[in-house]
Specification:
One of its GO terms (molecular function) is 5-oxoprolinase (ATP-hydrolyzing) activity. This protein is of the alpha+beta class and about 675 residues long. About 30% of the residues lie in helices and about 25% in strands. The strands form 9 sheets. Strands 13, 14, 15, 20, 23, 24, 31, 34 and 35 form a 9-stranded mixed β-sheet that branches.
């Protein structure tokens, strides 16, 4: 029997989650406290515990995939490298001027809304050089000025330099020459070129993402290098892979070349894990709902593929990197309920966090939270929360809701608790509409995948709100991001600016550019443990109407009889879907893109044998679901006792160590062969 193992490790702010897969055996899962000062300590500690659970040795690990927040935290905590910026003469202040956008327009004192901290004015240096808007050299590169700028920035303590010259996405020659000269004299410096990081038009966005790449490169290189060495010393021979924000994984050594692509990869892993759980039950169109303690992440998967947006946001700043389209709102189990000036009930975005946490934790928290409401409503068992590892105090929960919400509004505690649930559910339902209806998708055509510690608690009322009839609850919703790491494909993407009117473009010109992109992407794939015949290549173009400032991505198929006509028709259809209208106006290309993708590590779950299904109900208790005056008797199940083929109707509560699933009346539960639970609304 094959005894090789695959391990996925996702580092979060509170816990580091582990999933271990071994052929022919059930998965092992583990959660250990994170160590923010050095995340690798928690990884190595958890690895030792996981190997003990699996009775295995490190040399049996064939794949080790890591999801890390190191790059994101470096930005949020302002702990990146001291960074300098080289720009074309006359453009040193692009980073500071930005787009002159103001998210808060009535404050008397406006804070900067551009990431000036990346490279303050003293560390932004102009270099004489200039390209035309078509890429021809207008002013040759002043090589002496490049070296003088590098000398100055190194003297000021710079550990990294971002190079962003005007129109370099059309002709990267000047940037490449500047890099070669600086590397020769200062090989220790981290260098990021805009023509490599983001070869597309719009100067501000290109400058920002290149500066972010340089800012995080030394930090991430140090962390991943140290992690790789520690794993090797621990006896792990498998190469270290890391999750990217687009939803694919890559070798750590390759990821350090483009660290900006690791931003916000944690939510992406959860989406991939949700998609994998849905595929196990033959569902390919889903909305993933990941509810944790402080936030709720929502994403849409169609045809088995997550939607990818061309630009994300980190700490309020634009990061033009392809990312899984995740909508995050400040609604979670720890979200605090409060009453606004008009006397309305509000929930979040403030959170009680892990310390002191909700009032029911008994750790000093006094505010009323969503978790407190869940306890009061009977949805959570005070004696079996987190598998019994934490005892909840229902009296403290009642007291917090009574003093902060119920008494001021003249409601009973039960009415206030139910109101808190309805408010937070309404907020999450609106976020679900943003990722579906707003983008031209009908949520009724999708199933809902509930993950995170609180996702299965709220899944059914949210599904009913959007007329969704099927909910999938994976085997281990609380560690699904770690499972998603193992399901994700190995993937690399390369794009280039291609500003051409469609009417003036020939298919052969597109093919020439795509061939060049394939060579670059293939070089990245060479660093992965895959063979060429495993790689699947897809092409896409960013297209807009002539004169339009925003664009849409559409697939390219050069094997069609009329490839340009096919691209145009797909653009028209996508524009109609996303924006609700389209015209037969001329269109133009903005960027061309190639994506190389190899198989992921998704393994078939161990089939379950049907059980006897006798004595499955552990107990029964009254819960409040719809009417605070009339509690509903609900059967309580332990998920560990449920097996393939088990079927029962709500109302019911299914408890497991990492979550609780609430099944409302009119819904049924079925345990699939994979072990996933499928909740279905009765027809009628």
């Amino acid at each position: 029997m094959d005894d090789r193992m695959e391990i996925g490790v996702d580092t979060g702010g509170t816990f580091t989650d582990f999933v271990c897969r071994k052929a022919g055996e059930h998965e092992w899962i583990l959660k250990v406290p994170s160590t923010p000062d050095d995340p690798s300590r928690a990884v190595l500690d958890g690895l030792r515990q996981l190997l003990d659970l699996a009775h295995a040795t490190p040399d049996r690990i064939s794949r080790f995939v890591h999801g890390t927040t190191v790059a994101t935290n470096a930005v949020l905590e302002r702990k990146g490298a001291v960074t300098g910026l080289l720009t074309t003469a006359g453009f040193r202040d692009v980073l500071e001027i930005g787009r002159q956008l103001r998210t808060v327009i009535y404050d008397l004192e406006l804070d900067p809304e551009t990431p000036v901290f990346l490279a303050p004015g003293a560390r932004r240096v102009e270099v004489p050089e200039r390209l035309s808007a078509t890429g021809e050299v207008v002013v040759p590169l002043d090589e002496d000025a490049v070296m003088a700028a590098a000398d100055r920035l190194v003297a000021e303590g710079c550990e990294a330099i971002a190079i962003c010259f005007l129109f370099s996405f059309l002709n990267p020659g000047h940037e490449h020459r500047a890099k070669a000269m600086i590397e020769e004299k200062y090989p220790h410096l981290a260098l990021s070129l805009s023509s490599d990081v983001d070869p597309a038009f719009r100067e501000y966005e290109r400058t920002v993402v290149t500066a972010f790449d340089a800012y995080t490169k030394p930090v991430l290189s140090s962390y991943l290098g140290r992690m790789g060495q520690q794993l090797s010393r621990a006896g792990v021979a498998a190469p270290l892979q890391v999750m990217q924000s687009r939803g694919g994984v890559s070798a750590a050594a390759t990821a350090t070349q483009r660290p900006v692509r690791l931003f916000l990869s944690g939510p992406a892993a959860g989406v991939v894990g949700g998609g994998g759980a849905a595929r196990e039950v033959a569902i390919h169109d889903v909305i993933t709902l990941d509810i944790g303690g402080t936030s709720c992440d929502i994403a849409l998967i169609t045809g088995g593929k997550p939607l990818v947006r061309p630009e994300g946001v980190i700490d309020g700043y634009p990061v033009r990197v392809p990312m899984v389209d995740v909508n995050t709102i400040g609604s979670g189990g720890g979200s605090i309920a409060w009453i606004d000036a008009a006397g309305g009930l509000r929930v979040g975005p403030q959170s009680a966090g892990a310390a002191p946490g909700p009032a029911c934790y008994g750790r000093g928290g006094t505010e009323a939270t969503v978790t407190d409401a869940s306890v009061v409503l009977g949805l959570l068992d005070p004696g079996y929360f987190a598998g019994g590892s934490l005892s909840l105090d229902i009296d403290r929960a009642r007291a917090a809701i009574e003093s902060h919400i119920a008494a001021p509004l003249g409601l009973s505690v039960a009415e206030a608790a139910l109101g808190m649930h309805r408010v937070v559910n309404a907020q999450m339902a609106e976020a679900m509409r943003l990722v579906s209806i707003r983008q031209g998708f009908d949520p009724r055509d999708f199933a809902l995948v509930a993950l995170g510690g609180a996702g299965p608690v709220h899944a059914v009322p949210l599904a009913e709100e959007l007329s969704i009839s099927t909910v999938v609850v994976p085997r281990h919703p609380g560690v699904l991001s770690a499972a998603g790491l193992l399901s994700a494909p190995v993937e690399h993407e390369v794009a280039v600016g291609f500003p051409r009117d469609m009417s003036d473009t020939a298919p052969d010109e597109i093919r020439t550019v795509l061939d060049q992109l394939d060579q670059r992407c293939g070089a990245l794939m060479d660093g992965e443990d895959v063979t060429p015949d495993e790689v699947r290549i897809t092409y896409a173009a960013d297209v807009c109407y002539v004169g339009q400032s925003h664009y849409l991505e559409v697939p390219i198929d050069l094997s069609e009889p009329e490839p340009l006509a096919g691209i145009y028709q797909r653009f028209i259809a996508t524009h109609e879907q996303v924006f609700g209208y389209c015209t037969e106006s001329p269109a133009r290309f903005v960027n061309l893109r190639t994506v190389h993708q190899a198989r992921g590590g998704e393994a078939a779950p161990l089939p379950q044998t049907p059980g006897s299904h006798t004595n499955s109900i552990r107990t029964e208790r009254e819960v409040i679901l719809d009417d605070p005056r009339v509690p509903t008797p609900a059967a309580i199940y332990d998920r560990a006792t449920l097996s393939h083929g088990h079927h029962f109707d709500g109302p019911a509560i299914i408890e497991q160590p990492d979550t609780t699933t609430v099944v409302h009346p009119g819904w049924s539960v079925e345990i699939a062969t994979s072990g996933n639970m499928i909740l279905r609304k009765a027809r009628g």
